[in-house]
Amino acid sequence: MHSKYLSNSVSLFATIIILAFTNISMANDLPTVRVGVLSYGTINWEIDTIKHHELDKKLGINVEVVKLTTKNAAAIALQGKAVDVILTDLFWVIKQGGKFKMHPTHKLSGGLYAKAINTQVNDINTLGVAGGANDKNLLVYKAYLKKKNQSLTSELKYGAPPLLNEMMLTGKIDGLINFWHYNARLDASGFHNVLTTQSMLTTLNIKSEVPLLGWVFHRDFVDGAHEQLQRFIKASQQAKKLLLNQHADDWARLKPKMKAKSEKEYLALIQHYPSTIITDEKTEIEASAKQLFDEIKGLKDQNLFLDNELFPQNLFID
After folding, report:
1. d(CA 235, CA 52)
2. Helix or strand or coil: residue 33?
3. Are 298 and 216 in contact (CB under 8 A)?
4. Strand, coil or helix: what is 158?
5. Element at 166 (helix H, strand E)
6. pTM reported for the whole predicted model
7. Distance between CA atoms of 42 and 45, rounded to whole angstroms?
8. Helices 282-297 and 136-147: angle between axes, nearest 10 degrees
9. Cα-atom radius of gyration of the chain, to the nearest Å?
């Protein structure tokens, strides 16, 4: 009896080992898309969802996550073809002069935050800005003020997003332009978006969503591995759909990655997420991207674009 039980156990163990190696072999047989991802970015929520639900394998690819430490490291990895795709911003791609193509995923959103809901632009003596002098929301704000025949009179304070949030909480700055997930944390703390990015864009007569971030591929990969590229984009879209539908299990799994300091902050992050995702058609967002490019080039004090720089042709992936 004992011998028969042992024999069955060994047989079951052998079967498990065979199945495990079979699954590994099947995964290794799939074409791989190497994705360069910053260890601290919110895009990790999407990547986690892809891998957890095996959306990549169901579509016939294997998403290999390559962890990178900085935005510059990600750019170098893509340029050197150490990875096939990274998530980066539109203006970086424009400045590369057509070497890369983009599938836009996230739109320009957010705005100017302050403590009092009735705060006016002239009330802000010190303005915190995440992302430095070339921050897109700051440049939009400058273009907005120019359109309104107003001057930027606030003293600008640049810094890391969490530090700037802390400065807002302690009253060391009067206003703040920050990344969307830090805006969500400010909402949870009782601050207000007193001048939305959308209202600024409307003043600039930009009516469609402006792409801010997207999956960026080297043109050689676009030409040589178009099928894998399209499958990766589809997996990305499916992961976003799961998160947009606010599946409780997915968000509960992601909660440790979100690093929310309270339940209110956690819920604010979930509620803000849909406002970051692009929904407009390609032709519309391409037109809005060109409009914003022209607006920023027209700013006297911007140091992002040269006078002779052009918007690349066929920048966005079909």
Report:
1. 12
2. strand
3. no
4. strand
5. helix 161-169
6. 0.88
7. 6
8. 70
9. 23
Q: Please choose, from the candidates 39, 28, 48, 26, the residue with its C-alpha nearest in 3D space to the C-alpha of residue 236.
A: 48
Adjacency order of strands within the sheet including 175-177: 155-158, 126-129, 175-177, 111-114, 192-196
Tell me the CA end-to-end span of the chain in Å, nearest whole number. Answer: 65
pLDDT digits 0-9 by tens, 117-146: 999 999 999 999 999 999 999 999 999 999
How many Cα neighbours within 13 Å face the side chain of 199? 9
The answer to whether residues 48 and 257 touch, using CB atoms and an 8 Å cutoff, is: yes
Give the C-alpha separation, 243 to 239, whole Å: 6
Residues near 275 by beta carbon (within 8 Å), at least 6 away in sequence: 109, 180
Distance CA 200, CA 304 (A): 20
User: For residue 150, what are the CA distances in angstroms to 131, 143, 209, 279?
Assistant: 23, 10, 25, 32
CB 133 within 8 A of CB 158: yes
CA–CA separation, 98 and 117 (whole Å): 43
Cα 301 from Cα 194, distance rounded (Å): 24
Instruction: Flag the least confident range among 2-6, 98-102, 166-170, 208-212.
Output: 2-6
Give the β-pairing of 155-158 and 85-89: unpaired
Residue-wise pLDDT for 203-241, tens only, equals 999 999 999 999 999 999 999 999 999 999 999 999 999
